[in-house]
Design a protein that fits this description.
Strand content: 5-15%
Number of strands: 7
Radius of gyration: 21 Å
Largest sheet: 5 strands, parallel
Shape: elongated
Order of helices and strands: EHEEHEHEHEEHH
Helix content: 25-40%
Distance between the termini: 70 Å
């Protein structure tokens, strides 16, 4: 058995699940920008992929192996980690990847709603904005 300090735990269950509860000190890791996100993890340690979906974990395992990382897949539920003596925590923790699965908290949601509202307001007024710009051209349906 490896000592906890000899490995990196990468939680690949998804951003919402990670924020709800994860092994203390684990990293959230997605697949979308894996090569760049992997640079945030310690390089000299094997990566343990904590997953509840074996197919996705196998894809990440293959990708990480191709990038030269030693990996292990563990599908033990969080309760099992806790029973084995690992502490759990909530919140953003260590995010190696940007989560793309959901907006989680109300403050973050309000920011996204405001940004979407501002974009739509701009988009609705775009024709008027372009009409007032003599350098802009509009190509309509021919």
């Amino acid at each position: 058995a490896m000592d906890r300090d000899e490995l990196v735990i990468a939680d690949v269950r998804g951003g919402v699940a990670y924020r709800r509860a994860h092994v203390r000190g684990s990293w959230f890791l997605g697949r979308a920008n894996l090569k760049s996100d992997l640079q945030r993890l310690p390089e000299d340690k094997p990566v343990v992929l904590l997953s509840d979906e074996i197919g996705f974990a196998r894809l990440l395992d293959r990708d990480l192996s191709q990038l030269g990382r030693q990996t292990h897949i563990v599908t033990t539920p969080l309760q099992g980690w806790e029973q084995a003596g690992f502490d759990l925590e909530q919140g953003a923790g260590q995010m190696a990847s940007e989560p793309h699965d959901a907006i989680y908290d109300l403050e973050e949601r309000e920011i996204h709603v405001r940004d979407a509202h501002d974009y739509l307001k701009w988009r609705v007024n775009l024709f008027e904005i372009l009409a007032g710009d003599p350098g802009a051209t509009y190509v309509g349906n021919a």
